[in-house]
């Protein structure tokens, strides 16, 4: 009794300890999960906010670029572009008025200036030209040293912080004799990033060189450069005290980012964490109390559950006992019933797996016997399905019940099933006694078996004797213990499992000789091979069945060189005087027709078989080898290749039509192939083989062709073309068009229309 109480106390202490650890771990897990979730949500939210800010900046500068493009169309600008041409005050005034309109149409622009390189003069919308030119000298000098088309600077003009946007003009000419300088006030960044008082945390922008361009928030620029910028620009780990979100470099190489101290960001979650730990302590006390009160029920309930899991055989006894007792309406009875249901479901699934696995294995065995094993994948499957293949040699047996059709009238289907099952067990047991192998049903009353033997160094003769001895053992046992007899066909003995399909076919072909040998016989296929004048089987260096199998494999692989090497093996027959020429000619003729029919069955248009008269005119092995290469290998490979190319052309044509019809959409190869019900790999291969191009290049070509048609037959703007053809802006479209066609879109339209008018 004391020992039992001691065990109960020990159990109670362990349970309390485990409960404490679990509740503490639960609180910490909740905190970690909540923090990570909040971090991800905040990261996503600020990414959206930063993306909007980036879009606003890009839209602002696109507005400036569009105004500059319109400004370039002014005739008055040509006098300033032309080097050495005298300035016209009226033209200068026209330009200044246009610049003033641009200034008033764009927010946050205080001044626009035009700087001419030839005379180093500055024309500004502000009348204090001389003073402004002195302030802009450092900016212009710095810009010229950068050797860029556009730049953005933070500087001081008239002792006031100013943002300067400067770009070279004209945009689409190689020589750029003018600079346009736009003076942006600080309200531009307040509108974009917000004012310092309004921002919680810090919004900032880094320029293309990684320097702080603008910063709005409570943290100063020095702190951001020390703790945040190294993480963004060099991938260094940031301070754990700061939360940082940023976008990749975008328009002009700028990086938009946000930073905020973690304490400020996670203030509420830290409070929740403290509340969770307080609740964890309360739950710990409650768990201890509940544990003490429920210990007796716990032991009693788990005793029932352990009994159920340990010994399922006593289940019926426990159900009988439970029916005699009053039902217990408690929690453990519910758990007990649920676990019993889970166990029954598990047992049912196990039975289903046991039923399905033999069927899958049986299907693989049939496929293996009819197609052979050539790839490493096939060998891996043999290992997976526990099909041992020994290296000493193998042979195939085809076991057929004699007079099976007549037995169907004497025995029921159940009896015939058990007869077949018993016969397969006998075959498998005899095979296991000799070596390793498998058995598969291949028809009513017929079984195909593989027997492989270990490499014991006794040679092919011993392997052949073992295979025939196994066949005789099967036949004798069936004759003695079953109400029927069997005939057994035996294939040749081989070592290469690539010819397993030939061996199984030979075993089945051997049974065809049952017409001559009679029933209840073991029939080796080699007894019916060509014999020489002395009645002995001639050992040939070439197996015509294996040669036929190899040539068919090489032709299907579209590898004529490999097929040539196989065919050249016939030259080893040269000089064998024991060969009968009529038999050799018959074997070669049969091989030719078999190859034609096998390959032709996979073609939509089977090839025309050669005439027997043509084959009879071949009188030497050299002629046969040459004829096989030209009229069999080359011809059938060409037919297969032509059918392959027809399929590729059809797929390529379908893709081409689809791309031309939908090139204004955001196309992907996977989506096109899915719409056409074509595998993606086939679509990619078709474009490569037919058009010698990739999907992206073909789509680009299709869009350029459509753009050329628009430029010739419509007045559509370049911006609209770029938008309709899925380009982010007109500059990218113009750059791509020029790279492909050789000239920009505007120049192409002008030249083509001039040529059309001239014609």
UniProtKB/TrEMBL annotation:
<feature type="domain" description="HTH araC/xylS-type">
    <location>
        <begin position="653"/>
        <end position="751"/>
    </location>
</feature>
<keyword id="KW-0812">Transmembrane</keyword>
<dbReference type="Pfam" id="PF12833">
    <property type="entry name" value="HTH_18"/>
</dbReference>
<dbReference type="InterPro" id="IPR018060">
    <property type="entry name" value="HTH_AraC"/>
</dbReference>
<dbReference type="InterPro" id="IPR018062">
    <property type="entry name" value="HTH_AraC-typ_CS"/>
</dbReference>
<keyword id="KW-0805">Transcription regulation</keyword>
<feature type="domain" description="GGDEF">
    <location>
        <begin position="392"/>
        <end position="527"/>
    </location>
</feature>
<keyword id="KW-0238">DNA-binding</keyword>
<keyword id="KW-1133">Transmembrane helix</keyword>
<protein>
    <submittedName>
        <fullName>AraC family transcriptional regulator</fullName>
    </submittedName>
</protein>
<feature type="transmembrane region" description="Helical">
    <location>
        <begin position="275"/>
        <end position="293"/>
    </location>
</feature>
<feature type="transmembrane region" description="Helical">
    <location>
        <begin position="12"/>
        <end position="34"/>
    </location>
</feature>
<dbReference type="InterPro" id="IPR000160">
    <property type="entry name" value="GGDEF_dom"/>
</dbReference>
<dbReference type="InterPro" id="IPR009057">
    <property type="entry name" value="Homeodomain-like_sf"/>
</dbReference>
<keyword id="KW-0472">Membrane</keyword>
<keyword id="KW-0804">Transcription</keyword>
């Amino acid at each position: 009794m004391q020992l039992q109480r001691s065990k109960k106390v020990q159990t109670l202490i362990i349970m309390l300890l485990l409960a404490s650890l679990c509740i503490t771990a639960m609180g910490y897990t909740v905190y970690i999960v909540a923090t990570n979730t909040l971090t991800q949500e905040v990261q996503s939210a600020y990414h959206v906010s930063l993306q909007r800010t980036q879009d606003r900046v890009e839209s602002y500068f696109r507005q400036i670029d569009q105004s500059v493009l319109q400004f370039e169309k002014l005739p008055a600008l040509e006098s300033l572009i032309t080097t050495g041409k005298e300035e016209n005050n009226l033209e200068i005034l026209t330009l200044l008025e246009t610049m003033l309109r641009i200034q008033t149409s764009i927010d946050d622009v205080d001044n626009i200036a035009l700087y001419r390189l030839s005379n180093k003069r500055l024309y500004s919308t502000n009348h204090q030209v001389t003073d402004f030119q002195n302030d802009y000298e450092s900016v212009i000098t710095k810009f010229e040293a950068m050797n860029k088309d556009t730049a953005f600077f933070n500087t001081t003009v008239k002792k006031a912080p100013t943002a300067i946007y400067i770009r070279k003009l004209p945009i689409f000419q190689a020589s750029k004799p003018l600079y346009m300088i736009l003076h942006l006030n600080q309200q531009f960044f307040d509108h974009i990033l917000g004012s310092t008082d309004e921002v919680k945390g810090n919004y900032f922008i880094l320029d293309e060189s990684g320097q702080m361009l603008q910063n709005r928030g409570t943290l100063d620029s020095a702190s951001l450069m020390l703790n945040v910028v190294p993480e963004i620009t060099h991938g260094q780990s940031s301070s754990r005290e700061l939360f940082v979100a940023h976008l990749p470099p975008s328009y002009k190489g700028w990086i938009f980012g946000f930073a905020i101290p973690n304490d400020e960001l996670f203030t509420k979650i830290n409070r929740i964490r403290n509340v969770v730990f307080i609740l964890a302590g309360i739950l710990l006390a409650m768990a201890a109390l509940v544990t003490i009160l429920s210990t007796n029920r716990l032991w009693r309930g788990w005793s029932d559950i352990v009994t159920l899991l340990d010994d399922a055989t006593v289940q019926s006894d426990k159900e009988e006992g439970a029916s005699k007792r009053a039902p217990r309406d408690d929690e453990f009875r519910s758990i007990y019933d649920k676990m019993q249901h889970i166990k029954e479901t598990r047992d049912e699934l196990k039975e289903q797996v046991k039923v399905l696995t033999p069927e899958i294995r049986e299907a693989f065995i049939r496929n293996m016997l009819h197609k052979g094993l050539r790839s490493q994948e096939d060998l891996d499957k043999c290992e997976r399905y526990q099909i041992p293949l020994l290296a000493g040699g193998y042979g195939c047996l085809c076991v057929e019940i004699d007079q099976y059709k007549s037995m169907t009238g004497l025995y029921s289907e159940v009896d015939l099933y058990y007869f077949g099952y018993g016969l397969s067990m006998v075959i498998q047991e005899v095979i296991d006694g000799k070596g390793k192998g498998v058995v598969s049903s291949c028809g009513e009353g017929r079984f195909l078996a593989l027997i492989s033997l270990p490499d014991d160094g006794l040679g092919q003769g011993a392997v052949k004797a073992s295979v025939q001895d196994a066949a005789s053992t099967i036949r004798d046992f069936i004759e003695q213990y079953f109400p029927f007899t069997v005939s057994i066909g035996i294939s040749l003995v081989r070592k290469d499992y690539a010819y397993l399909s030939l061996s199984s076919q030979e075993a089945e072909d051997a049974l065809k000789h049952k017409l001559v040998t009679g029933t209840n016989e073991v029939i080796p296929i080699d007894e019916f091979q060509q014999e020489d004048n002395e009645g002995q089987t001639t050992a040939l260096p070439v197996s015509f069945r294996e040669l036929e199998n190899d040539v068919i494999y090489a032709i299907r692989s579209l590898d004529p060189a490999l097929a040539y090497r196989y065919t050249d093996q016939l030259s080893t027959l040269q000089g064998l005087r024991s060969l009968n020429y009529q038999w050799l000619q018959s074997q070669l003729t049969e091989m030719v027709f078999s190859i034609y029919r096998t390959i032709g069955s996979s073609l939509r248009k089977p090839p025309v078989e050669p005439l027997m008269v043509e084959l009879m005119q071949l009188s030497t092995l050299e002629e046969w080898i040459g004829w096989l290469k030209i009229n069999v290998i080359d011809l059938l490979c060409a037919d297969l290749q032509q059918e392959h190319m027809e399929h590729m052309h059809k797929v390529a044509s379908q893709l081409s039509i689809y791309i031309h019809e939908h090139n204004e959409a955001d196309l992907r190869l996977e989506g096109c192939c899915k719409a056409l019900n074509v595998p993606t790999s086939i679509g990619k291969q078709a474009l490569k083989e037919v058009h010698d191009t990739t999907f992206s290049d073909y789509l680009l070509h299709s869009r350029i062709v459509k753009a050329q048609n628009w430029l010739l037959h419509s007045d559509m703007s370049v911006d609209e073309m770029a938008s309709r053809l899925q380009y982010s802006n007109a500059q990218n479209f113009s750059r791509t068009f020029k790279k492909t066609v050789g000239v920009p879109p505007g120049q192409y339209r002008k030249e083509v229309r001039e040529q059309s008018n001239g014609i």
